[in-house]
Design brief:
heterodimer, A: 405 residues, mainly alpha, Cytochrome Bc1 Complex, Chain D, domain 2, two-stranded antiparallel sheet, two-stranded antiparallel ribbon, 3% strand, B: 505 residues, alpha/beta, 3 domains, 11-stranded parallel beta sheet
């Protein structure tokens, strides 16, 4: 009897599939390659984590929207709302942004894409202590992960940008990163027929004859970056009330993490695991690198010397090495930094105003191990986007930083 | 012969004594009142009906009946295990004994009641090895009647729990803070005794609508600190022999940037002259010993009817961030000045007998070796004082005459009803779950990793329970699809909501 039902269900589903079989044009994040020579169509559905509304906008949806937060700041405890999200981009803008993100045509010599340093296979970072730009130029800081960047109001390690558009002008036009210019970028993108078609889909209100603007390029890339959501880790299952999601050691780690001895959660505050502030904690630079003044420079404020943005810890397991210049290879080394003495790594000639939470917690080896156990429960890459197998520019995709490692 | 007579007399006496003992014992048993169980804690302390009383010390409320389970914990047992068994609404009763645990509570509406028997308390002892005694994230947490000693971090710490009551706890040397609610709205901290804390004994950090009443704090670096919080009433507390008695601060660099609407009234703030033993680098390490009240960068603070005496540096210091002595990086988003401070009637004597540091130097420029009752230094605007002439003041030149003369109309700064959870309909919960989780593998009419949602609709038409059974324990029915991981971690409500939502998409 059971077998009979299963057989019926199976055949039913086969029939249903025939009617609803996937077609390349409506497939979510359709691969451009399949349709390169035919009609070009961007994805019409939102990525996971978003609901399409009647205005063709993708609106963020997740279980944290069940909760409130104090003063709507998105910081607190387990069942606390997230900070304000940046959403409302169209599915087409998000999909176009995906192509742009992976396309090295954006860089001065067409060798480096955004994904070169923000590789989805490496937690949207690059696995290096400090990044490498065009022509093997070295960059002074490490590449920050882009997971959940839609919730951030400070960007760059020194917090100098307050939105993604402002931020992306940094790497695009820095000589040692993507090394292009505004003029060159516009000229390049406007000379590629495929991009003209794609931009007219993503920005339907424009005249077909209008040339592509910087604003449209930035919006598309921002749209894609804001679609990178990671909120379904085992920690999240625990937070929403399923206490079996973490084992006893991981719960011990959570309790060390939020204790007022370790004080991790005072700055890496749930649910985003950052309070989005600048903190001076005095981490060491890897050998050979000069002291980095951090937030002192953009804010022109000596009291913030050596200050950096508190990074989110979501998917932290995937983004070694750690800190602004990759000084620590492992999570274990990183958590141990905080218990090795207030200011122990500050150069002798520096008088930094260290953050008050940097103190002498005297954590045991056992506690440090449990902290690492807990940090690994923050991993969730279920919404990882698909990498295009072919690009509108026709460049063969070799985005992967790990290939050149 | 004489011997047997003596023996029989002895026997008679013994019999009488034994009979007497039995009689007394039986009489005691029969006539003495039965030992009553401790009464249930007052679970309604949160909701004060100010209409019923003018006395802010009394709690008046409409009693709601206790309907939960009572879970008993006795010496040798574990409070943590009791929390694991508890459901929202339950009461955990802890009997006298020593418990060395970190009690973490990630559930809502759990109450803890220490049972004190003839002066014997349930003791949470961290033995200077454990970090925190109570650590809660749930709403509606109530903790009373515990003696908490020798922890390294906090006695009681809350992270985002609303509607809390912390009272009648005796907190000794629990590390950095004694009682520290953070990111909470609507809480009551009353009738606690705290000492030996190296930062603030009672630290209200980034909270809204908190009453701190009837507590005794002594021998700490800071007695009571209201930091980056709004709507706080600090009343009827006794703060003595701390480095600083009562503080209202804005600390820069925190995600919530303001402190305003704080009333400090009817407190005894006496001889807060303890040497500062704060950890190097901590914000309170900069508090000069001998400080009664310290207002730094907070706005709309009213100081009324306190007895402030014997504080050797100054009775009240009102300062901006720059002059506050705290060492921290600047924060452009944090307004550094104390604005609209109001000082009403206060009984201030014998303050400033031995000013220290910068204040000492400042007073010497005035040819005085004594510190003032009230010092205002640095920026700030709109502050006022009632009957300024009665105090010895310094730096209050810009202070106008106070407009109001009392705060009698304010009985509490807590909310008049508990903070409710966000109102989410079943449809919305279904929507959040579907797009927030299911959409990772399922789209409506196309194949992603899992089958299209419209196929699920056909299979489970009018049968949401069928979907729930499947996601709890998926069985791979199709060779052409990978097996679905169980989604049993979702709450029962979320499962039903998403099952119904899928069927109505």
């Amino acid at each position: 009897m059971k077998k009979f039902i299963i057989t019926i269900l199976l055949s039913l589903s086969v029939v249903v599939f025939y009617f609803f079989r996937p077609t390349s044009t409506s497939f979510h994040q359709s691969d451009y390659s399949e349709i390169a020579d035919r009609s070009i169509e961007l994805c019409k559905t939102c990525p996971p984590g978003f609901q399409l509304n009647e205005f063709n906008e993708c609106i963020s949806k997740n279980l944290y929207l069940q909760y409130k937060s104090l003063e709507n700041k998105g910081v607190g405890g387990l069942k606390t709302a997230l900070p304000k999200v940046r959403d409302g981009f169209s599915p087409q803008q998000i999909d176009l942004g995906r192509y742009l993100f992976f396309d090295p045509v954006l860089s001065g010599d067409h060798t480096v894409s955004c994904a070169s340093c923000h590789d989805p296979e490496l937690g949207f970072s690059d696995g290096r202590p400090t990044s490498i730009g065009i022509q093997n130029n070295s960059v002074s800081r490490s590449s920050p992960s882009l997971w959940n960047v839609a919730y951030l109001n400070k960007l760059f390690w020194d917090g100098r940008a307050s939105n993604l558009e402002e931020q992306m002008e940094g790497p695009l036009y820095a000589n040692n990163e993507m090394g292009t210019t505004k003029e060159k970028l516009l000229l390049t993108i406007n000379s590629i027929e495929n991009y003209k078609l794609l931009f007219s889909q993503a920005f339907p209100n424009r005249q077909a004859s209008d040339s592509i603007t910087l604003h449209e390029i930035y919006t598309s890339i921002a749209a894609f970056e804001c679609s990178l959501i990671s909120l379904n880790s085992r920690y999240d299952q625990y937070a929403h009330g399923y206490h079996k999601a973490l084992n006893a050691k991981e719960i011990e780690g959570l309790n060390v993490f939020r204790s007022f001895v370790a004080r991790c959660s005072e700055c890496h505050t749930p649910p985003l695991f950052t309070n989005q502030q600048i903190a001076v904690i005095g981490t060491p630079e890897p050998s050979g690198l000069p002291f980095d003044a951090g937030a002192e420079i953009p804010f022109d404020d000596k009291s913030r010397r050596g200050g950096f943005k508190v990074p989110s810890l979501r998917n932290i397991e995937r983004t070694s090495p750690y800190m602004h210049s990759g000084g620590f290879k492992t999570l274990r080394e990183t958590v141990a930094f905080y218990t090795e003495g207030r200011g122990h790594a500050v150069p002798e000639n520096e008088a930094l105003i260290l953050h008050w939470h940097i103190w002498e917690p005297e954590l045991s080896d056992y506690e440090l191990d449990r902290l690492v156990d807990f940090l690994k429960t923050l991993t969730d890459e279920t919404f990882k986007p698909k990498i295009p197998s072919e690009l509108p520019s026709g460049i063969i995709l070799t985005h992967n930083a790990s290939q050149t490692l | 012969m004489a011997k047997t007579k003596a023996t029989s007399v002895l026997r008679k006496i013994l019999t009488i004594i034994i009979a007497l003992i039995i009689g007394v014992f039986a009489g005691y048993k029969i006539f003495s009142p039965k030992a009553k169980e401790a009464p249930l804690p007052n679970s309604n302390a949160l909701y004060r009906s100010t209409a019923k009383t003018n006395d802010s010390a009394s709690v008046s409320n409409d009693y709601t009946e206790f309907k939960g389970e009572i879970i008993v914990v006795k010496d040798g047992e574990s409070i943590v295990e009791a929390v694991k068994k508890a459901s929202p609404g339950d009461l955990i009763r802890v009997y006298p004994g020593v418990y060395s645990e970190t009690v973490y509570i990630d559930k809502d509406n759990i109450s803890f009641q220490g049972i004190i028997q003839e002066g014997e308390w349930p003791i949470l002892d961290g033995k200077k090895q454990l970090n925190d005694a109570f650590l809660y994230s749930g709403n509606g947490i109530q903790i009373e009647n515990f003696k908490i000693i020798n922890y390294k971090g906090n006695g009681i710490m809350g992270q985002a729990g609303n509607n809390f009551v912390i009272r009648n706890n005796w907190v000794i040397d629990t590390g950095v803070y004694g009682i520290f609610p953070q990111y909470g709205t609507n809480g009551l901290i009353e009738h606690n005794i705290l000492t030996g804390i190296e930062d603030a004994a009672i630290y209200v950090g980034m909270c809204d609508n908190i009453d701190v009443k009837h507590n005794k704090v002594y021998g700490n670096v800071a007695g009571i600190e209201i930091e980056n919080s709004r709507h706080a009433l600090v009343e009827n507390n006794y703060a003595y022999n701390n480095t600083g008695g009562i503080l209202a601060f804005v600390t820069p660099g925190l995600p919530i940037k303001t402190t305003y609407d704080v009333i400090i009234r009817n407190n005894f703030i006496i001889e807060n002259n303890h040497e500062n033993f704060g950890a190097p680098g901590s914000i309170v390490a900069g508090i000069p010993p001998g400080t009664g009240i310290l207002i730094m960068a907070a706005d709309d603070v009213i100081i009324e009817n306190n007895i402030i005496s014997g504080n050797n540096n100054a009775g009240i210091i009102i300062t901006d961030f720059e002059n506050g002595g705290a060492k921290a990086s600047n924060d452009p988003e944090s307004e550094p000045n104390p604005d609209r401070i109001t000082i009403l009637d206060n009984f201030m004597i014998d303050n400033g007998n031995a000013p220290v540091g910068e204040l000492k130097a400042l007073m010497l420029t005035q040819l005085s070796s004594k510190g003032p009752d009230i010092l205002a230094i640095g920026g700030g605007a709109g502050s006022t004082i009632r009957d300024k002439n009665r105090y010895r003041t310094f730096g209050l030149g810009s202070y106008g005459e106070a407009i109001k003369d009392n705060t009698r109309e304010v009985f509490t700064l807590m909310l008049d009803k508990p903070v409710e959870p966000k109102d989410i309909s079943e449809k919305e919960l279904g929507e959040l779950t579907y797009y927030g989780i299911c959409a990772g593998c399922h789209a409506f009419d196309i194949r992603l990793i899992g089958i299209p949602t419209n196929v699920i609709q056909m299979i489970y038409k009018d049968n949401p329970q069928g979907i729930i059974d499947y996601i709890n324990n998926p069985k791979n029915l199709r060779d052409d699809y990978p097996e679905m991981p169980p989604q049993n971690y979702l709450s029962d409500e979320a499962k039903m909501a998403v099952a119904k939502y899928i069927l109505t998409l």
